[in-house]
């Protein structure tokens, strides 16, 4: 996002008008305010320049050849969806229908020609302030969202995010039949690891294991989460049990490759994992509980059969 506060540079104003003398007048007025200026001579050019420069505000004429301001404003909303566009329309059209249309297509403000320069100056200032505030709020929201959904020790998704994603993916299953797999990993004899090496070393170890698991998944839709203390969950959309076992094998070998010494482990001199895998292809109102319980049972069996293994 192009926030002027981050860039510590003056706001960028995009002037869009087919009338060259009008562009010159607007440019002079905006430069006088200390803003940076970019120009476009019609709606089509405006879309290209908007995409390239992400201006802080657009001063948009209505009547232009090639693509008029109303169409351009509509296109801006759809092409760059997700955040409001700071569009101020400046036009000779002052009838009610034109004003209504401008706001309907997403303009935030409207100024008629001939321009009352003192008014335009204040309107631009106020719009820039509003958008600056909006962007700061957005950034604060995103930071909060990251905090609320990630685990502070490992930076992986936390349990809340895992639950959210699992439900979202199960909803998708309700619409399209595609397998969804869950891989549950639990560190073997981790209590004795803490007892032997100390809690801080235990934390470091969990961070390394988390990274090794994250390295083992490839698709952007796969989600790796810290499920509990020394338990990790990996959700694999569009993946059947066979594919999930391959991921589980990769996870186990990546963790072994860390060669984390664990001399008090009853199995090996290095840290190992036990893994439970479960898959589903159908949506059911209790699919979430069923999938977790199936993976949990498989994990329990992996422990019971001697640990350091994968059970499906
Ligand atoms: P098993 O092979 O049966 O899984 O044995 P275990 O010792 O790993 O299982 P148990 O559930 O008894 O112990 C888990 C340990 O994980 C106990 C707890 O102190 C430790 N643990 C949980 N969360 C953290 C953490 O954030 N940091 C550290 N250092 N240890 C943690
Ligand atoms: Mg015009
Ligand atoms: Mg455990
Ligand atoms: Mg354990």
From TrEMBL:
Residues 178-312 form the GGDEF domain. The modification 4-aspartylphosphate is found at residue 61. PANTHER family: DIGUANYLATE CYCLASE DGCM-RELATED, REGULATORY COMPONENTS OF SENSORY TRANSDUCTION SYSTEM. GO terms for cellular component: plasma membrane. The lineage of its organism: Bacteria, Bacillati, Cyanobacteriota, Cyanophyceae, Oscillatoriophycideae. One of its GO terms (molecular function) is diguanylate cyclase activity. It comes from Gloeocapsopsis dulcis AAB1 = 1H9. GO terms for biological process: cell adhesion involved in single-species biofilm formation; negative regulation of bacterial-type flagellum-dependent cell motility; phosphorelay signal transduction system. Residues 12-128 form the Response regulatory domain. Signal peptide: none annotated. This is Diguanylate cyclase response regulator. Keywords: Phosphoprotein. Pfam families: GGDEF (PF00990), Response_reg (PF00072).
């Amino acid at each position: 996002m192009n926030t002027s506060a981050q860039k510590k540079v003056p706001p960028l104003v995009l002037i869009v008008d087919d009338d060259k003398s009008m562009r010159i007048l607007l440019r002079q007025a905006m430069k006088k305010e200390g803003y940076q200026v970019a120009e476009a001579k019609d709606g089509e050019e405006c879309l290209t320049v908007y995409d390239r420069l992400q201006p802080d505000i657009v001063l948009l004429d209505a009547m232009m050849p090639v693509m008029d301001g109303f169409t351009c404003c509509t296109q801006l909303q759809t092409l760059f969806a997700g955040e409001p566009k700071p569009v101020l329309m400046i036009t000779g059209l002052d009838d009610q229908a034109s004003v209504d249309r401008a706001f309907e297509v997403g303009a935030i403000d409207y100024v008629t020609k001939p321009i009352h320069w003192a008014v335009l100056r204040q309107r631009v200032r106020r719009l820039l302030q509003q958008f600056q505030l909006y962007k700061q709020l957005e950034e604060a929201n995103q930071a909060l969202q990251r905090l609320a959904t990630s685990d502070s020790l490992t930076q992986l998704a936390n349990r809340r995010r895992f639950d959210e994603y699992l439900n979202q993916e199960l909803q998708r299953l309700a619409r399209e039949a595609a397998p969804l797999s869950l891989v549950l990993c639990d560190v073997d004899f981790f209590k004795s690891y803490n007892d032997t090496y100390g809690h801080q070393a235990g934390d470091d170890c969990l961070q390394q294991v988390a990274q090794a698991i994250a390295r083992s998944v490839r698709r952007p839709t796969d989600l790796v989460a810290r499920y509990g203390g020394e338990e990790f969950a990996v959700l694999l959309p569009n993946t059947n049990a066979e594919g999930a076992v391959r991921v589980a094998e990769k996870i186990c070998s990546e963790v072994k490759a860390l060669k984390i010494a664990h001399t008090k482990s009853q199995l090996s001199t290095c840290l190992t994992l036990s893994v439970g895998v479960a898959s589903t292809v159908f949506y059911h109102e209790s699919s979430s509980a069923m999938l977790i319980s199936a993976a949990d049972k498989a994990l329990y069996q992996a422990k019971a059969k001697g640990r350091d293994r994968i059970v499906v």
